[in-house]
Write a structure and sequence with these properties.
This protein is mainly beta. It has 2 helices and 30 strands. The chain has 2 domains: 82 residues, Elongation Factor Tu (Ef-tu), domain 3, CATH 2.40.30; 273 residues, no CATH class. The radius of gyration is 21 Å and the shape is globular.
Length: 404
């Protein structure tokens, strides 16, 4: 059944019960995390009781679900009118230690019957090919480009990432992005900037057409405050009709752990940036061959070199008079012979056109306002030091959806 609310966006964190959620400096540890988020995980036997259009799911032990995450219910066969409407994806409203709730307005009061299970719902890509510490995931959503993304987790310090319009095995691609001439072997997703045994936190936030991966790369041994790099793999959005090639690998272009190389740029800028780490499958012309995109961090009039949400030369936000956060999208631009082209936008992510100070940490949330009313916005702090006040910025990622 279709949930009464949108379930297209899923988010996952290192605090969840993945088969292996501990990411340390070693080969082969990041890919299983991505695989679990693709497939779903943490399957539990459960019971469901419905009262007043609200389903209460109970289980024994612990479960990974959190408010605003998406679970997949299976095995409900009866017990009340429209009981099977609860099978499928459902958005969690609240969670207690051994139970959670979701809305089910079509189901009458009662106790569900059947061999019922719940698990964290996966992103829903097709695992097309696998190898030792390697995998290729194909986008299969009907509205997607249908392209695929290859991840190579054989290095301890970083993962290699590359897109392809198609793959014939885990190592062989057709029309790759980026090409070897752009970044030999594909983009870099740094895990850490040095060999460290301590597990680091992470987040994956995405939908059926792409996802953000947030990992603290530059670590400070003197601080527990870990900032994030933010990378994105998958389809862009807000493209022109007929643009069937706006699939991007937004990752680093070297082994460096510097945030300028490794992340979605957090600088608010009105000028075209030639960062060589946004590899798109094809130009807007649809001619075969990958190109690099630049970006407008935001259409701001404040300053051309300040960081999203963290410059004291900007107005304090949220606005005291209306409580609104001024948010602006991250725009991907293409450099054409006729000038810069507003090609697409990165889905789900917003820059903050103002100064929110250093009081917010990764994992905090904002309740959206204005055009984001009804949405939960997840805070991700980026930067290149391990302490508050370091160079970087703050972005918000919509965990409510839909993005497109």
């Amino acid at each position: 059944m279709t949930s009464p609310v949108d379930t297209s966006v899923k988010y996952f964190t290192s605090a969840m019960n993945l088969p292996n959620s501990l990411l340390t400096n070693a080969a082969g540890l990041l890919l299983p995390i991505i695989q679990a988020c693709v497939d779903g995980f943490d399957s539990k036997s459960a019971t469901i009781v419905v009262s007043g259009g609200v389903a209460t799911v109970s289980w024994s032990g612990s479960h990974s679900c959190l408010p605003d995450t998406v679970i997949e219910v299976a095995g409900v066969t009866g017990g009340m009118t429209n009981a099977t409407d609860m099978n499928g994806e459902q958005k969690v409203v609240s969670k207690a230690s051994t139970s959670c709730t979701f809305a089910c307005p079509t189901v009458s009061n009662g106790t569900a019957t059947g061999t019922i299970t719940i698990k964290m719902a996966g992103l829903g890509y097709q695992t097309q090919f696998t190898g030792t510490n390697k995998a290729v995931y194909k986008l299969i959503h009907p509205a997607s480009t249908g392209f695929a993304l290859r991840f190579d987790d054989t290095n301890a310090l970083y993962m290699r990432v590359r897109g392809g319009e198609s793959f014939t095995d885990v190592d062989t691609h057709v029309n790759p992005f980026p090409t070897d001439a752009m970044i030999s072997g594909g983009g870099y997703m740094p895990k850490t900037n040095a060999a460290m045994a301590t597990a680091v936190p992470w987040e994956i936030i995405g939908d059926a057409r792409g996802f953000f991966l947030c990992i603290p790369v530059l670590l400070s041994s003197s601080s527990t405050y870990l900032l994030r790099t933010v990378t994105y793999f998958g389809d862009l959005t807000f493209t022109a009709a007929g643009d069937a090639a706006a699939c991007v690998v937004a990752a680093g272009n070297s082994t460096s752990g510097s945030t300028s190389q490794a992340q979605i740029d957090l600088t608010l800028s009105v000028s075209y940036a030639t960062y060589n780490n946004y590899a798109v499958a094809r130009s807007y012309t649809q001619l075969a061959g990958s190109i690099m995109l630049g970006r407008f961090g935001a259409h701001t009039w404040f300053n051309t070199s300040v960081f999203s949400g963290s410059a004291n030369t900007m107005t304090k936000v949220p606005n005291a008079n209306d409580g609104v956060l001024p948010l602006v999208p991250l725009i991907a631009v293409e450099n054409t012979a006729a000038g810069l082209l507003n090609r697409a936008r990165f889905p789900g992510i917003q820059h903050i056109e103002g100064d929110i100070g250093y009081g917010y940490n990764t994992g905090d949330t904002f309740t959206g306002s204005g055009p984001f009313t009804g949405k939960k916005l997840y805070v991700v702090r980026g930067g290149n030091t391990g302490a508050p006040g370091g160079s970087g910025g703050t972005v918000l990622i919509d965990v409510t959806g839909p993005w497109r």
